[in-house]
Amino acid sequence: MARKKGSSTRKRNTAEKREITAGKKQMMAVIWFTVAVFLLFVVFIKGQNVWLWLHNLIFGLFGVTAFFYPFLLGFVAVMFALDRINGSVTAKIIEAVCLAALVGAAIEIFATGDSLKFAEHIAGAFDLGAQLKGGGFIGALIGHPISWAFGNTGAGITIILLIFVLFMLITGTTLITLFKAICKPVKKISEHAESNYQERIEREESSGKKLKVIKGFQADIPVDEPENNEPELNEQQKRLVNAYHGKNTVKKETEAPEGAEDKNNINEALKATAAEKTEKTEDAPENIDFKEETKKFTENLETDMDTSTDEGYVFPPLSLLKPADAANPAAAAGAEVTAEHLVETLRSFGVETRIVDISRGPTVTRYELQPCAGVKISKITNLADDIALNLATAGVRIEAPIPNKAAVGIEVPNKQSDVVGVRGIFESPAFTGAKSKLTFALGRDIGGNAVVADIGKMPHGLIAGATGSGKSVCINTIIMSILYKATPEEVKLLMIDPKVVELGVYNGIPHLLVPVVTDPRKASGALGWAVSEMEKRYKMFADRGVRDLAGYNRFVETLGEDTEVEKMPHIVIIIDELADLMMTAPNEVEDSINRIAAKARAAGMHLIIATQRPSVDVVTGVIKANIPTRIAFAVSSQIDSRTILDTAGAEKLLGRGDMLFSPVGSTKPNRIQGCFVSDEEVEAVVEFIKGDRAADYDDNVMVEIERQAAVEKKQKTGLPEDGPDEDPMLNEAIKVVVENGMASTSLLQRKLKLGYARAARIVDEMEARGVVGPYEGSKPRKVLITPEQLMEREANGDE
Helices H, strands E: what count in the chain? Predict the structure, then answer.
């Protein structure tokens, strides 16, 4: 008992000491902040009497470097207030004071040198410092001995090297980082010049120019051939491309003439060409660089020409998309310091590890650690929150172990994230080299590599995450990838958008089977049409002895051009919000999705489903079983993560496109930063496509969707169309059971004052309509619809 009492007393005393220490630090913060503000006013305002004497004293001592000290004292006050004063911070403050003193010494060395005696130099430095003309007394005290020892030149070199060393210590910069920062711009300039040279050669070859070597002078001059067989874009396409880039159509510049035999002739030809250009551009506005604008226009025009197809579809040029921002080289400078801090943090908890690799991605950096012998992986995974606290960051995720590596991955968010542009992925070899027409861009992995996927191999995908996590951008990226990769004859799209505003921008593109479906009832009909189309395709496959869509299209090719049988396109069905559809027509939607997901792969039909509510009543077990590929964005809880991926991890994502991608057959999900495509880029691409080719909606599909919606609505009522036996109290009875959350005959008898027989008939009628569940003995029947669904039924006019 006495031992427990002594222990509690010691804890109480320790807590009191901590409170006293914290109070002292806050008081010190107030004192230092007051001194800093006072010193700031003294430095910037001369004043009179004692104030003026203090002003002259400070500048006499420190010279022009006196402006630095108020801000340094303010920094000290902030460190005290945040309770960050420790050995490393104190060392940085001392180093900063020394750096300011060396700067003052450098000013004195370059201004005065060793021309004066020591006493004269010190006295004069104080007076000059008071007049803001030197490094002050402290600067002379340090600078004069160095000048006397090494001479003016040696002293200048010495003081600059000392300043350089202190600057490196304060900023924590290493020599390797410094050399990389110096060499990287040089390397970029070299690569840029080489790429420009290659682009120029390719541009000249594609535009019909040939390089001819003129005897007597080794120079390659591009000379136009007489014939020009280049295809041309129509006026509307040219207008769209120029409007997006803000360009003016200019006349083609005159090329260099042929026939030069030596250097003098070449110079004369070039002068004649320049004069002719000047005459042709006299009437042009002065603020337009015609040479540059013509070059840009020609490059974009050639890009557009190369993207035409035999079917008449012109792929949109990449110039409509914004180029990716260059990576910040300074962002990766602190990775090694963080790695050492990480190892020290784990060591403080008794876990010995060593860094084996560092991979910096656009959003997070993965530190690969190899535990020492005898260290359990669970000891590392249990320290996730402690690691986040010591690194002063949030969202630390631990992957233990990394697949195919004997290491543990600790993913730490970057202080500066890089935006992954969709254009950069479209230009990558992973996307351009993919042969599948259903290839789409995902983003970049932790190593910074472009990641793409094939819808045909998925073969269906589920996208889920909280609001604002990046689902809509991911769907836009998938659609844009198809527009850049496939013609309308190769891939058709069926878009269902209950939210109305997300996918409406794509109305009018030739890839759409029908306009974007926004009515939830018609959405159920559209899925019903997809099921019937799937069955129809399988019947056609069976009649021709083929097993899948690729075999059927190969069979059509063997028939030749005279046949009336046409190839069938892939159909990608995109549902932007599954939760809304499940609320409106859960049974019909789930049945259609399950049938399509289970059988439609060989028929060339694929589902992409997105939802922001990954609960088990929306993403049911049957739907998950038939959709093996999942993309999880940031979610609010581990339960939602397990609903999507069958594993935890999505609750620690950072949002803004940070995703976990689990393809079919993978054992663990891959972390990827999704690529970003803006609304302006989407609109520009859609306008370009619509300007080239109008939409060709299938009237038969629209009629079938309307018919399917009407059939399902009739089936849901469970009564004949005229409904002669409907009880007039049915609607009131439905409201009663929904409000009470249960249904029974006795409840209707009490609330509506009905007889037993009539109340029992109404309960049976509600069961036929899907309002209440089946009979469960003595228990009340379950109510299958919510008040929101009831209000929606009333708004839609359902009886």
Answer: 28, 17
